[in-house]
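I am writing to request your help with a piece of structural work I have in hand. A protein sequence and the structure tokens that stand for its backbone fold form the material at issue. Please examine both parts with care and let me know of anything in them that strikes you as inconsistent. The record follows directly beneath this note.
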Amino acid sequence: MKKYDIALFDLDGTISASAEGIRYCLEKTLDVMDKPHPDLSDYSKFIGPPLLNTFQKLCGLSAQEAQQAVEIYVKLYDVDGLRMNALFEGIEETLDECKKNGIRLAVCSSKHEAIATQVVELLKVDKYFDKICGSTIDGSRKEKEELIPYALSKLNASENDRVVMIGDTKYDAIGAKKCNVDFIGVTYGYGTHEDMVNAGAEVFAETPHNLQKYLI
């Protein structure tokens, strides 16, 4: 039996192993703009937060420069970063079990919606998702507390639906808490267990397969 009616999945670090492609495109964007590279060895610093925030807070760009950087990044990602995505082992089986048990699924990602759609299609898991929901390129919808209600509205969710957000970072945990939905943290991604705990997370899955016991 399903434990939830709706499961919202983060993309990077939850469904897709994408860190190398994101890092590559960040560095190439900064090269195009002739800006120095920050230390990008810690993936938790730039996978999870909205792209505009990464360029401003981590890379030290102004708001105007960050918007320009996002536009450059999107073009680079479309050419190079996209093909550097891979499924985490076992995640497709979990998505399949959720679907078979009647759980409605949506991607809920701070990645731009068009790119998130491309990634999901490239990984050939689009058949499992009822909706793919992401941020806008102008930054008007970028935080998880904005994306979760957006995804639920796209799914025509009712107030009686049991909803869970699944992700690998504190940003997912914070968004879930603000939106009053359950949260499952995955520890195989790019965020840290400590950061998720500090953000209020209490339930964790060590592998994609391990997720199933919390959903079904």
